[in-house]
């Protein structure tokens, strides 16, 4: 049975997760770049002088950690999506692929409080399709004598 729809949805979901991994890498790069951070910090201090430097450092550490979390979670989702695609091709293990996709979609969406829902929706739909679609039963030809 052809699983083209599931494979395409999984590829789109993996691309979206890859985009979010790049967003996380950009966050980590930005907040590790001292010159950019100082410029942004000065701009924020000018706009809101009541903010303390300690508050700015807290924000810095929060976004650095969030960026790494986004990178790791997105890359795990991409790897598991590729594994699911391998399971789907040739109709090897579509049920296992469906379960993997649904679990990844749920965990990534809940772990980011809905931030990765866009990739998760594609994985969820592909996972449900893997579980629901069944291979057609082989036609048995009975001969009448």
UniProtKB/TrEMBL annotation:
<keyword id="KW-0812">Transmembrane</keyword>
<feature type="transmembrane region" description="Helical">
    <location>
        <begin position="99"/>
        <end position="126"/>
    </location>
</feature>
<keyword id="KW-1133">Transmembrane helix</keyword>
<feature type="transmembrane region" description="Helical">
    <location>
        <begin position="7"/>
        <end position="31"/>
    </location>
</feature>
<protein>
    <recommendedName>
        <fullName>DUF4064 domain-containing protein</fullName>
    </recommendedName>
</protein>
<feature type="transmembrane region" description="Helical">
    <location>
        <begin position="66"/>
        <end position="87"/>
    </location>
</feature>
<keyword id="KW-0472">Membrane</keyword>
<dbReference type="InterPro" id="IPR025273">
    <property type="entry name" value="DUF4064"/>
</dbReference>
<feature type="domain" description="DUF4064">
    <location>
        <begin position="2"/>
        <end position="109"/>
    </location>
</feature>
<dbReference type="Pfam" id="PF13273">
    <property type="entry name" value="DUF4064"/>
</dbReference>
């Amino acid at each position: 049975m052809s699983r083209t729809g599931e494979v395409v949805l999984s590829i789109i979901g993996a691309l979206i997760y890859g985009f979010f991994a790049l967003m996380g890498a950009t966050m980590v790069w930005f907040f590790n770049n001292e010159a950019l951070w100082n410029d942004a910090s000065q701009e924020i201090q000018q706009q809101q002088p009541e903010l303390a430097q300690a508050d700015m450092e807290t924000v810095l550490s929060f976004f650095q950690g969030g960026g790494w979390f986004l990178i790791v979670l997105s890359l795990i989702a991409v790897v598991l999506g590729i594994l699911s695609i391998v399971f789907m091709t040739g109709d090897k293990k579509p049920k296992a692929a469906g379960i993997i996709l649904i679990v990844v979609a749920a965990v990534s969406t809940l772990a980011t409080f809905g931030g990765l829902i866009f990739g998760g929706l594609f994985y969820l739909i592909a996972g449900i399709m893997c579980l629901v679609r069944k291979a057609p039963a082989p036609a048995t030809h009975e001969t009448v004598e």
